[in-house]
């Protein structure tokens, strides 16, 4: 089993992040953010390659990012509009000057923090940066253990004439952790792309939010505000500072 420092995801994924990972929902996120007001200061935790930040700045928001990986930020800087002010550091602990109307943490990235302590500290850091009435907006998947047997599973992600991409995973129910190994097999060889994640269900996140002085205001199943139900695969939770 393994853990990551805050720069390791980027070292492994920055090169092809935009090709392999983009879920194509940045415009939906911009519309969602706008529904809370068309102006304001946003702090994005884990700004990455600017997938969401650049469209938000183009929509008129003032945005500052925190990111663990200089490689990811370099990719953002190479894009048109990618000159978004960003601080390199762990988003659970890095402090940025001033107060914000909104803190954003999207695309399951809370789970990149692989202990409960680290996740609680992330909520506290979000709350610290918010002005009174400000919102912490969080997107994660809802953990689904149904594919695991004996705490492990292997699935096929892609198959082509010259490649097969597999995902091998171990589940640690005591630590609420998944240890993923993405195995990319081609004629040139095998590339391993590991990823540890510590999952939490929404009620645990609500408790973390309370510890940080935040209350859950809304929870949706997706960025189009569809209702969150027992069958939802992911959630957008909106936490408000009193
Ligand atoms: C799944 S990507 C999401 C990037 C971007 N928010 C997006 O939606 O495209 C996860 C990002 O979190 C960053 N990251 C992971 N752990 C971090 C930490 N502890 N502190 C700061 N950044 C971290 C990675 O470098 C990567 O850019």
UniProtKB/TrEMBL annotation:
Swiss-Prot/TrEMBL keywords: Methyltransferase, Transferase
Domain of life of the native organism: Bacteria
A Pfam family that the UniProt record links to this protein: Methyltransf_25
SUPFAM superfamilies reported in the protein's UniProt record: S-adenosyl-L-methionine-dependent methyltransferases
Region forming the signal peptide: none
Gene Ontology biological process terms, A to Z: methylation
Domain Methyltransferase residue range list: 42-134
InterPro entries in alphabetical order: Methyltransf_25, SAM-dependent_MTases_sf
GO MF annotation terms: methyltransferase activity
Protein name (record): Methyltransferase family protein
Annotated organism of origin: Maritalea mobilis
